[in-house]
Structure formats: structure tokens, C-alpha cells
Design a protein that fits this description.
Elements: H1 2-18, H2 20-27, E1 42-43, E2 49-50, E3 60-67, E4 73-79, H3 80-87, H4 91-95, E5 106-109, E6 114-118, E7 121-125, E8 129-132, H5 138-152, H6 162-198, H7 202-234, H8 236-241, H9 244-274, H10 285-384, H11 398-423
Antiparallel strand pairs: 1-2, 3-4, 3-8, 5-6, 6-7, 7-8
Helix pairs in contact: 1-2, 5-6, 6-7, 6-10, 7-10, 10-11
């Protein structure tokens, strides 16, 4: 006992030097030890306290939930891990809905959910609910209110599943938003382009350049939505994967069938254990085979009917996507027509600039010819101004005659120049 006490007294300084917090807690176990960093510090499993450490991925986001059964709308605070477990989605699918990043428009069909990223509408659609991100956005609030109104005013003959109704509203909102932006761009573009054709200036050219950059960005977004819808229409497997209600009903029926079969087998086991069955009342081998064949036939019929139902629903979803494909294709045609108008305007401006450039070149050639004619007179004056004896200088009025002859020759050269460039069509006059 004394040896153990001595060993503890030897180890005590080492404990103080290595882990002072442990030593303090060991020396005074009745006093609780607070972490050094306050509420911001976190304790690792090894006992190490790290101040100012935040848990990654633990932040919650505000989601708007629209329930299918009661059409109720409520706001939830859900973190990423809970959302992944709730909808059985991988992290890469939820990353597409992150408002901090800009991702192109995407529609993904998964086992239990549909991930939709269409402009401002970023949501997860299941067979029972719709979870919308960006709960403070006006477009998201309008989407939730419109979906609630349609669920409450659902017609009796409307058999469209809930997930298709939510997807239809998302497509409608995205197509309407893009079409409104295209119409606004058209209203701004055509007067500006007409003004540019009438008056070419640096300010108008800069405005057209900004307009064209906006047009290119909007065309890219519209083209991505159109390609996404077209890709869904071309793949029957993806459309079948998006029918969540049918998969939910199949899962529930299989669970109920397994439970009933388990109850039947347990009851049969209880009957065989409690009391023996007489050989007269026991089923024969032929009846067992008949039951097995009837069970296989019923399963085959159920699979066949489910396949027929799935085909009908695929056609229904294809018709829905085709309607909005026509709408988004019309918007793309508007933007294409506007781009062609801008290209035509640019071609017209280039023609005008070429014409001005040709006029400047023509004027430069005229000045060069006139300079050549004037230079001839300078040469004549220089010759007569030289200080040497010549018989030509003794002729009366020789200088005047030489100037007249030089002027006639210069005028002839100038007229030949004009005729050459006019009738040979080397340059329009």
C-alpha cells in the first residue's frame, strides 16, 4: 500500500506537466471544469479542448414544406444530414440546390424524390411533400401559394399524381420567368437597334454591346432548360423513375403482403403445433400445385397491369413535358430572332462604315491628283526661275504660254483620273 502511494506521488508531477486540466480535475473532482474557450470550444473524444472550432456541415437552412394530403404550408429548419436521410438523397444532389453556388438548370429523378433546380425554384419533390429552399424569395413564396391553391381546388377527374403537379408548376414558373425576361429584352432591344442604325455613336455601340451580352446569357439559360426537358422526353427510364406515387404504392403493397404472409404462416404453425390435423382435411398435392399456379398467375397479372399503368403514366408525363417544351422552344425562337436582328444591324453598320471608308479613300485620291497638278505648275515656275541663259526666255510672253499649256495638261490628267475611277467602277462616286 505504501509502495502504491509513493508511485502515485511520483506520477503526480508528470500529470501536471502533460495534462494540466486533467490534473486539476483529478485533484479536485468535486469542481466541474469549464472548457477554456467557453461555448465556442469543443471537446474531442481524446479529451483535447480546441477553442473557436465550429462543426462543419451542421448549419440548418430554412425550407418551406407543402404537404400533399392536407395542402398545408409550413416553414422548417432542417440541416443537410437530416435532409439526406429524409429524402434518401446523396450529398451531390443537395449541392445542386445550394443558393451560394450557381448551377445550370437540372431535373433529377431518384428513388424517393425528384431534385428540381429551375431558375429561382430549387426544391425536392417526394410523393408526400415538396421542400422548397430560399424561403424568403418572392418567387418561392408564390410557388408555394400557387401549389397550395391548386391542391385545394383539385378537380374530381384530375388523376395527375402529386409529384407531377409540383413538377408542372415548377416548369410553368421557370418558363414564365424566362419568357418574361425575353419579352423585356425585346422591348428594350428593338428601339435601341433602330436608333443605332440612324445614328452610329460610341454610346449606342456600348449599349448594344451590353444588350448582346445579356442576350447571350439568357439564351444559354433557356437552352439549358430546353435541353433538360428534351433529355427527359427522350429517356423513358428517367420518366418512369420520376413516378414516385406508383413506387410508394408498390412498396406499401409488398410490405402488407409480406406481413399477411407472415401472419398466415405463423397461424398455420400455431395450428400444427396446437392440434394435429386429420388426414382427411389436409390438402392434397394437386390442390397445392393449383394454389402455387394461381399465385404465380396473379403475380404475373399484377406485374403486367403495373407495366401497363406505368406506360400510361409515362405517356402522361411525356405530354406534360412536351407542352412546356413547346413554350420554352418558343422563347428560344424569340431570342434567336432577336440575335439575328442584332447580327443584321451589325452587318448594316459595317456596310455603312465601309461606305464611309471608301469615300475617305476617294477623297484622298482626289487630293493626291490635285497635288500632282499643282506640282506641275511648281516645276514650270522653278524652271523659269533658274539663273541660266536660254533661247526660250527670249520669246515674247513665253512664261504665259507655258503656264497655259501646263494648265491644260493638268486638267486633262485630272479628267482622265475621274473618268477612270468612275467608269471602270474601281470606286463609287
Amino acid at each position: 500500500m505504501a509502495a502504491a502511494t509513493a508511485a502515485d506521488s511520483v506520477k503526480q508531477p508528470l500529470l501536471h506537466r502533460a495534462y494540466p486540466s486533467r490534473a486539476a480535475s483529478a485533484s479536485s473532482p468535486s469542481l466541474p471544469s469549464a472548457p477554456p474557450g467557453g461555448a465556442a470550444a469543443r471537446r474531442f473524444p481524446g479529451g483535447l479542448d480546441v477553442p473557436n472550432l465550429k462543426k462543419r456541415g451542421g448549419g440548418t437552412r430554412s425550407w418551406i414544406r407543402v404537404e400533399a394530403a392536407s395542402a398545408s404550408v409550413q416553414t422548417l429548419e432542417i440541416d443537410k444530414a437530416t435532409m439526406m436521410r429524409r429524402c434518401e438523397l446523396p450529398a451531390r444532389d443537395l449541392r445542386l440546390l445550394d443558393p451560394l453556388f450557381v448551377y445550370p438548370s437540372t431535373i433529377l429523378g431518384r428513388e424517393r424524390a425528384i431534385v428540381v433546380n429551375l431558375e429561382q425554384i430549387r426544391c425536392v419533390i417526394t410523393a408526400d411533400e415538396v421542400l422548397l429552399l430560399n424561403s424568403l424569395d418572392s418567387y418561392v413564396l408564390q410557388y408555394a401559394a400557387e401549389l397550395q391553391r391548386r391542391l385545394l381546388q383539385r378537380a374530381e377527374g384530375d388523376e395527375l399524381p402529386f409529384e407531377f403537379r409540383a413538377l408542372e408548376l415548377a416548369l410553368e414558373a421557370a418558363c414564365s420567368f424566362l419568357d418574361a425576361q425575353a419579352a423585356e429584352l425585346e422591348i428594350e432591344a428593338y428601339p435601341l437597334l433602330d436608333e443605332l442604325t440612324s445614328k452610329i455613336s460610341t454610346l449606342n455601340l456600348e449599349r448594344v454591346r451590353r444588350l448582346k451580352s445579356r442576350l447571350v446569357a439568357l439564351t444559354r439559360r433557356v437552352q439549358k432548360v430546353r435541353d433538360e426537358i428534351e433529355q427527359l422526353m427522350d429517356d423513358d427510364g428517367d420518366m418512369a423513375e420520376m413516378y414516385l406515387t406508383e413506387k410508394k404504392m408498390r412498396m406499401e403493397s409488398s410490405v402488407f403482403g409480406d406481413q399477411s404472409l407472415l401472419g398466415y404462416s405463423s397461424a398455420a404453425a400455431g395450428t400444427s403445433v396446437s392440434a394435429p390435423v386429420s388426414p382427411v382435411s389436409s390438402p392434397t398435392e394437386s390442390r397445392k400445385l393449383e394454389k402455387a399456379f394461381s399465385l404465380c398467375r396473379s403475380r404475373h397479372d399484377s406485374v403486367k397491369s403495373s407495366d401497363n399503368t406505368m406506360t400510361e403514366h409515362i405517356q402522361e408525363l411525356e405530354m406534360l413535358l412536351e407542352a412546356y417544351f413547346v413554350v420554352i422552344d418558343s422563347t428560344l425562337n424569340k431570342l434567336t430572332s432577336l440575335k439575328e436582328y442584332i447580327d443584321d444591324t451589325e452587318d448594316f453598320i459595317n456596310i455603312q462604315l465601309d461606305n464611309v471608308r471608301n469615300q475617305l479613300i476617294q477623297f484622298e485620291l482626289l487630293l493626291t491628283t490635285a497635288t500632282f497638278v499643282v506640282a506641275i505648275f511648281g516645276v514650270v515656275a522653278g524652271i523659269f526661275g533658274m539663273n541660266f541663259e536660254s533661247s526660250v526666255f527670249k520669246i515674247q510672253n513665253a512664261f504665259q504660254w507655258v503656264l497655259i499649256i501646263t494648265g491644260v495638261v493638268g486638267a486633262f490628267i485630272f479628267c482622265c483620273f475621274l473618268w477612270f475611277f468612275k467608269y471602270k467602277r474601281l470606286m463609287p462616286l
